[in-house]
Each structure stands twice: as C-alpha cells, then as structure tokens.
Specification:
- The protein is of the alpha/beta class and 270 residues long.
- The chain is built from 7 helices and 6 strands.
- It has a 6-stranded mixed sheet with strand order 1-6-5-4-2-3.
- Helix 2 packs across helix 6.
- It is globular.
C-alpha cells in the first residue's frame, strides 16, 4: 500500500512534466503585473492589485544601496525600480516623481536652455519640480533549486516509470524574496515595510506564464521564467505595503496634472 502511494505521487509529478504544466504560488494566489497607469487611471492592471482611494503623497523609487542578490546567469533586468513604479502608480496610493532617467533629462533641458540652445521661454524652468515626500527602496534575492535529479533517481528505480526519468530531471524550484521600505523624507522615519515572495515549480519543456502576451514586457519583466517569479514577489510585497499606506494621513500634494478631460469638465461647469 505504501509503495502504491509513493508510486502514485511520483507518477503524478512526472505526468505534469510531460504535459508541460507549471505551478506558481504568490501569497494567496498568482497574478501578472500588466497594463498602464496615467491620467486615465490604472488600465488592465493585475486583478489582485491592492489600491488606495487617492494618493497620500508624492514618492520616489530609488535603487537598493546594496544591489540585488541575483546570479547573472538568469539574465534579469538590471533594476526592478521601473516595475515597482508601475505598481505604485497603478495602485493610486502615490504621485510618482522621477529621480532616475527622467530627472536627468529635465536637468539636461535646463542646461541647454542656459546655454542658449533652446528657447528662453521654455516650459522647463527652475523651481517647478515636485519634491518626493516619501521614498520607496526595494531589495531582491532570487534563488533556484535543482530538484529534478532527486526525483529522477527515485523514478529510475521503478521499472514501470523508468522511461519517465528524463522528464523528471528537468524539474526546478525557483523562488524570489523581496522587500519594500517606505521612508518619510521630511522626518527620515521608516513608516512601513513589507516583504513579498513567490515560488514556482518549473517542470521544464518551456516557460511558465504569469500573464497574457504583453504583460510587463515593456520593462523587461516577462521575458524569462525567473523574471516572472520576481514580478509576482514584488506584487505580493506591494499589496502588503498598501494595507499600511491606507492608514497614513494625506500630505499636502502639488497641483494635479492638467488633462483634456479636466478641461472639458471646466467648460461644462461654465
């Protein structure tokens, strides 16, 4: 009876390999990071994404000062910050200010203006930038465990299953552990912290999928199995952070970004 149960369990694992199925866990479930965020609000975001009723502050996303613990063989994007910025904007909890490439471009425009290269009445002027009232700092550790050889060894000892051993060798466990730290730039106090994790059983024969075609492809996080696990972990951490953010008192925010929809609304009121 015991042998029968063991054989059944092993056979079930092997059949999953042969059928090219993937099992993924994200907190209580799994979801992609997809869609967009902007004047029209969040669009096609992950259904599991936690949201706020309105922004509580402006926020900047910065790189981890200690880097990210990821082996180069996984070919992950250099930084998870663009991914987290998308999550932060889709959640509606923050107004996101750029402290990376966007800021450098703004400074460059000002330099060109000072040098007389662009028009003097440029819309890019000193003193118009918005401060980051909060800062979010991420951390990331990714690991992979090769479990297939052990399973294959067991299967090879069972005559009726030994032909499946080759499939079993492809089984790998992938795991991402992440954290998000929220700091108040006025007081330097850490207001909230959240960890997130995601595991995936990669049964080989192709990549598993967190999302539909498109996903987070624009920021490089849907191209590999490993990247999709990291995406899921940050979504998990973000959702946990939002439960803390909802309790924060709203700071004085800069004026809203003008939109065509707002212009139309004003005309109707008049």
């Amino acid at each position: 009876m015991k042998l029968f149960l063991v054989t059944s369990c092993v056979l079930a694992c092997v059949m999953l390999v042969a059928c090219n199925k993937k099992q993924t866990e994200l907190g209580e479930g799994s979801a992609p990071v997809t869609g967009s965020a902007g004047p029209a609000g969040a669009n096609k975001q992950a259904k599991e994404l936690e949201k706020c009723d309105g922004p509580v502050a402006t926020v900047a996303l910065v790189e981890s000062p200690n880097g990210y613990t990821v082996a180069s063989k996984f070919n992950l994007p250099e930084s998870p910050v663009p991914l987290i910025r998308l999550l932060a904007q889709q959640s509606g909890c923050f107004r996101v200010v750029d402290r990376t490439a966007g800021l450098k471009a703004t400074v460059q425009e000002q330099v060109l203006k000072d040098q007389g290269i662009i028009r003097s009445n440029s819309t890019v002027q000193k003193g118009k930038g918005y401060e980051a009232q909060y800062t979010i700092t991420p951390s990331l550790t990714f690991s992979e465990q090769d479990a297939g050889r052990g399973i294959a060894g067991i299967i090879a000892q069972i005559p009726v299953l030994k032909d499946w051993a080759g499939y079993a060798e492809q089984v790998k466990f992938k795991e991402a552990q992440v954290a998000l730290l929220l700091t108040d730039n006025e007081t330097t106090e850490q207001l909230a912290a959240a960890t997130g994790s995601a595991r995936a059983t990669d049964l080989g024969l192709g990549g598993f999928t967190f999302s539909k075609a498109g996903g987070a492809a624009g920021i490089g996080w849907s191209n590999t199995n490993e990247a999709k696990v990291v995406v899921a972990a940050f979504l998990d951490a973000h959702n946990k952070l939002v439960t803390q953010i909802r309790l924060l008192q709203k700071k004085e925010l800069p004026p809203e970004v003008p939109t065509t929809a707002a212009s139309v609304a004003k005309k109707i009121v008049k």
